[in-house]
Amino acid sequence: QTEDDVVNYALGNNPNVKIANWRAENARIELSTARWQLLPRLSASAGWSTGYFTYQGVEGDSFGSQFHNNGGEYVGVSLSIPIFNRLNRSSEISRKRNSYARANAELDQKNRETESAVRKAFNDCRTALAAYQQACKKTEIQQEAYQLNQKRMEQGLISGLEYQTAVNNYLKTKSDDMKSLFTYLIKQSVLRYYSGVEYVNQL
Hints:
By secondary structure, the chain is mainly alpha-helical.
């Protein structure tokens, strides 16, 4: 994966970015809802009704006949214009607008922080790899020097102090080699995290 690929993946999947994105979307919906409450509302209704009547001492039509004959349809339209509490609703819209602006600002900040963290992880990984490769070269050189001094020591060409110095130099480069390797693995682990591999799955 390229650096830009990992940046794009992190911006779409990093938990902090996803939470900030959800908050921004929620704030947008709340602002939209508050705005709709100030608009006139037009509603329509339609239905069908019937009835059944009886009078004492008078024989009327049967229930089935009246149910059919007394039936009627109706259609209604109503327009509601919000007048009262308009000031309170306007204030609510202002608050929702500010919340939406803050949520977007937070989302932008999380996006910038995440992109910066990914690019830093790439740079750290490259730097750690270069340091590890350099340490490996130093270790090879010190190993050759150690092996040479070991032969010279066996031949009595150098003192014990000179030989111990060669041993110490070799062991130090080996130690530096291991530390640089561990540093590189840690930086690589951070990079894999931003690529979508959780730390727990890297064990």
